Amino acid sequence: MASPSPRAPLAERIEQLLALGGPLPIVAAGDPVLRVGTERYDGQLDPALLARFVEALRVTMHAAPGVGLAAPQVGVELRIAVIEDPAPVPEEVRVARGRVPQPFRVLVNPSYEPVGSARAGFFEGCLSVPGWQAVVARHAEVRLRGEDEHGRPLDEVFSGWPARIVQHETDHLDGLLYLDRAELRSLSANETVAQRWAQPTPETAARALGFELP
To answer: Is 124 among the domain residues?
Structure first.
């Protein structure tokens, strides 16, 4: 089956995308849809189609696997993202990174602002930039506002790794990739991160590769 035409109306394109079945194709860096920003969601999809699209994002995120996925990453320029993190990590990683389980949730029209001035730098990857990771300094705590898929307001403070996830996914909706915020001297192949830089924090990598942490 052919891929959806970018010129078709939004709902029609999403119907065509969902008709492909299974996990949706993830758009890779270099595709303009990851850079143009998104359209605020304002009822462009009927409730049934929105529910099907959200479920497709969830299935695709799990299959990748990842802990978040934004609509532009499947070629749809709508301000919608999903997150979920079972956080299956050792205790020392949990403590160092503040990585705690997050239930599945849908972020509609999200925006964030920092809470306080603290920042933290950790290796981060992206499903749209497969094979690579880099250290990104992000706000340690943020206030996220938006709605859920039912139109109910979201106003929640996230800290630690969950704060990183919501910043990463909201950035996608603004046409930003994590590499735009990364310390590029830290850029490492996934295999290198696993072999050399798998410590709970990236201090060793910072010394060896010559970059500073916040």
So the answer is: yes
Please give the model's pTM, rounded to 2 decimal places.
Answer: 0.94
Tally of domains within the chain: 1
Cβ pair 122, 97 in contact under 8 A: yes
The range of the structural domain enclosing residue 115 comes to 10-209
Residue type, 129: V
- Of 186, 167, 185, 187, the closest CA to residue 177 belongs to 167
Residue 4 lies in a domain: no
Q: Give the separation between CA 98 and CA 85, rounded to whole angstroms.
A: 12
SS3 content of the chain, % helix, strand, coil (to 5): 35, 30, 40
User: pLDDT for 162-203, tens place per residue?
Assistant: 999 999 999 999 999 999 999 999 999 999 999 999 999 999
Going by the annotation, the residues of the binding site are 126, 168, 172
Binding residues for Fe cation: 126, 168, 172
What is the per-residue pLDDT across 11-39, written as a single tens digit (0 to 9) for each? 999 999 999 889 999 999 999 999 999 99
Catalytic sites, residue numbers? 169
Length of the chain counted residue by residue: 214
